[in-house]
UniProtKB/TrEMBL annotation:
Protein name: Nuclear pore complex protein Nup88
Keyword Nucleotide-binding: no
InterPro entries: Nucleoporin_Nup88, NUP88/NUP82
UniProt source species: Drosophila rhopaloa (Fruit fly)
Biological process annotations from GO: mRNA export from nucleus; protein import into nucleus; ribosomal large subunit export from nucleus; ribosomal small subunit export from nucleus
Gene: LOC108048791
Record-linked PANTHER family: NUCLEAR PORE COMPLEX PROTEIN NUP88, NUCLEOPORIN NUP84-RELATED
Domain of life: Eukaryota
Transmembrane annotation, as ranges: none
Pfam families: Nup88
Compartment(s) where it occurs, according to its Swiss-Prot or TrEMBL record: Nucleus, Nuclear pore complex
Length: 703
């Protein structure tokens, strides 16, 4: 067993397939995710999601190595983030140019796999606002998070680089929340980006009750107060309303809070939030990530690209503070109800300097830092980047919890303990420009561990040490019940190819010069044409070729899957037919046996009734008469049957004798028969004539 691969994942077929489709660009992304005992991994080559039960795979005998979840519709995104929902019913596949949702099937069987360990499963998928991304080439996804309070486990919040958060419930767009100034289409390099006013990350803080936004005025009469109270009583539902603070981080370090309900169009944007103690750089001019730890009060972690992590507390302000910001003139901003107090700053070591190199290690490196919470230990979170992985433990959270649990009034809160950052994995230990970025990070639970996928294809699986006192009480399982809406088919393959072939520059018609161009001008023109040909044609053709290969692989995979499913269905149909035939035969046998039993029971009942000692004479005589009539009827029926047989026998003999007579009868030839007929006709005429003469003579004679 390797010390850097406790689960021996490098030898598995799952990660062998993942290595074949790893992207060439070395930038930090997250192609892994883990929920309970399921490890999800995105296969970019075949555009499908691979899943493995890492807990059951620890046993020696493993029947199912992994399962392949095939999307029902083509996934044309360059997926760089895999995020499973809270209850693991959906998986969000995110890329810079869109988001696709994949519905997970049901789990059953001894090992807890989907559909009892079926190797390949076609899963329902739908894209989110695919047409929006096709029509806006500069639009990109910055962050996405599943809402923790979604009863149906299907509410997804997506942050775009136009300072909007789009709320989806399955495939339906529910709300669009503006969290900053918007810029027009095609203004990707506008002043908003130059001043760092674009939101880069957000997180959801613990819920709170909304504040009454309509205070009573001094000149308000008693009647007005009673009318307003009556109207409010009719409009407010029985359940208490709650608001979720969405903490939004901008690139320049400013933090805003968006107060809104889960299913409400009414939002209140507050900010920029006052950060204390104040500094000249506003705690980071290159902010890249934000994380909320649900302590009391909530802990805010702000990450910078230079490796600095600021730990702060999000506290309610004593009074609302009005903020001034010229960039937000067209955005309605309310007075801030919160303040942020920074307690400490932790500086991470982004890579190790090469041997013999002077200066501070990692001082020249500048990478985007990504943050991920540890669901088991609420005091710990992870920071991963191009240079490896850090585990950061926030020590003052335990002191806050101890102070809140204490019942002593003399107890004092001392936040003197400093946090601890542990460099778990380093992938940058030389001065070269090449990096080995983290392509995936998954946190395992019970036993606790971590799985990392590096850009080189290597898989790191380590165990983590956890204090039992820091275990978080698991939340109750939420019942997922939502009517499935009509899925979006997503963009067609033709539209995808057209978008890939669409050039970002236009080539004008070259006018002829009066004099022939010099050799230098011709050389520069040739170089420019070659550069345009490479960047705008050949490169895009390579992208189209890769898209075709990906599409063909996906179609072939679907075809194989459908053929296999057809064979399985045919086999199931044969089994069902055989079972139905056997059941029909069994039913006939049972019906016949039931009829016999009914007859026997009737006979026994009749005999029992006849043999009863207290039976009256009339009933006994009636029974005897019925028996006699039954005997007579049977004899008559037997005689009738014998008569029928005799009649049939006589009819048979009569028919046979008639056939024999027909065979023995002599028939004259047709010519003789005609001659005899003519002679008889003549004789008949002669006899008639003689009779007439005799009558005439008698009349004359008077006889």
């Amino acid at each position: 067993m390797s010390l850097t691969d406790i689960l021996e994942l490098n030898k598995t077929e799952l990660f062998a397939k993942i290595r074949d489709g790893l992207p060439l660009a070395q930038r930090t992304q997250n192609l892994l995710d883990c929920k309970d005992d399921l490890l999800f991994a995105w296969d970019a080559k075949e555009c499908c999601l691979l899943v493995r039960n890492w807990r059951s795979s620890l046993a020696a005998d493993v029947n199912v190595q992994f399962q392949t979840l095939i999307p029902s519709s083509t996934v044309s995104l360059e997926v760089d983030r895999v995020l499973a929902s809270n209850e693991c019913s959906l998986v969000a596949l995110s890329g810079p140019r869109g988001v696709t949702i994949l519905e997970l099937p049901r789990r059953w069987g001894p090992e807890g796999y989907y559909k009892d360990g079926k190797a390949r499963i076609t899963c329902r998928t739908f894209g989110l606002d695919t047409q929006l991304f096709l029509n806006n080439p500069h639009l990109e996804v910055r962050q996405l998070r599943w809402h923790p309070h979604s009863v149906s486990d299907s509410t997804l919040l997506v942050l775009l680089n136009n300072n909007t958060i789009r709320v989806y419930n399955h495939s339906k767009l529910r709300h669009v929340w503006q969290v900053g100034p918007s810029f027009r289409r095609g203004e990707a390099n506008s002043s908003l980006c130059d001043f760092g006013e674009v939101a880069v990350d957000f997180d959801i803080a613990p819920a709170k009750k909304p504040v009454d936004t309509e205070p009573a005025t001094e000149n308000e009469s008693t009647l007005d107060k009673s009318n307003r109270t009556l109207i409010a009583a009719k409009s407010v539902p029985k359940q208490d309303k709650i608001e979720w603070p969405l903490v939004v981080l901008r690139e320049n370090g400013n933090i805003y809070v968006l107060m809104t309900g889960l299913d409400s169009d009414n939002t209140r944007l507050q900010g920029p939030i006052t950060i204390t103690p104040q500094t000249q750089d506003n705690y980071g001019l290159e902010s890249c990530a934000l994380l909320i730890i649900p302590s009391l009060p909530p802990t805010v972690v702000i990450a910078e690209s230079n490796g600095k992590l600021h730990h702060a507390l999000l506290m309610e302000a004593e009074g609302t503070e009005h903020s001034f910001n010229e960039v937000d003139d067209f955005v309605l901003i309310e007075p801030a109800e919160y303040v942020i107090h920074v307690l400490e700053t932790v500086e991470l070591e982004l890579g190790l300097a090469a041997s013999g190199a002077g200066g501070v290690a990692g001082a020249s490196y500048n990478y985007p830092v990504y943050l991920k919470r540890d669901l088991i230990n609420e005091m710990r979170y992870f920071a991963y980047h191009n240079a490896g992985l850090h585990a950061v433990t926030v020590s003052f959270i335990s002191e806050l919890q101890r102070y809140l649990d204490s019942e002593s009034e003399e107890d004092r809160l001392e936040l003197a303990a400093s946090s601890r950052a542990e460099y778990i994995l380093c992938t940058k230990f030389d001065s070269s420009e090449s990096v080995n970025a983290v392509f995936g990070l998954a946190l395992l639970q019970i036993p606790a561990g971590v799985v990392l996928l590096l850009g080189s294809g290597q898989v790191i699986s380590l165990k983590l040490v956890i204090d039992a006192q820091l275990l978080v009480t698991p939340n109750e399982n939420k019942q997922a019940c939502l009517d499935v809406t009509q899925q979006e088919s997503g963009p067609s393959f033709v539209d995808t190819i057209k978008s890939l072939l669409q050039r970002s520059v236009n080539q004008p018609i070259l006018a002829e010069k009066l004099s022939s161009p010099s050799a230098q001008e011709s050389y520069e023109l040739l170089n420019q044409a070659i550069e345009v040909l490479r960047e705008q044609y050949l490169k895009r053709h390579d992208l189209v070729r890769a898209a075709f290969a990906r599409h063909i692989n996906q179609i072939q995979l679907k075809k194989e899957q459908q053929l296999q499913e057809i064979q399985d269905l045919e086999h199931e149909r044969e089994l069902i037919s055989e079972r139905a035939h056997k059941l029909a035969e069994r039913f006939e046998e049972i019906s016949y046996s039931q009829e016999l039993l009914v007859r026997k029971c009737n006979g026994l009942m009749q005999k029992a009734n006849a043999a009863l000692p207290n039976n009256v004479v009339a009933e006994r005589e009636f029974a005897q008469e019925v028996a006699r009539l039954n005997t007579v009827t049977q004899s008559i029926a037997a005689g009738l049957e014998g008569a029928k047989k005799t009649l049939n026998k006589q009819r048979y003999h009569i028919a046979k004798s008639q056939e024999d007579l027909k065979k023995n009868a002599y028939e004259l030839p047709e010519k003789q028969h005609r001659t005899i007929t003519e002679i008889l006709t003549q004789l008949t005429g002669e006899i008639d004539r003689q009779i007439t003469d005799v009558k005439r003579i008698n009349k004359i004679v008077g006889v």
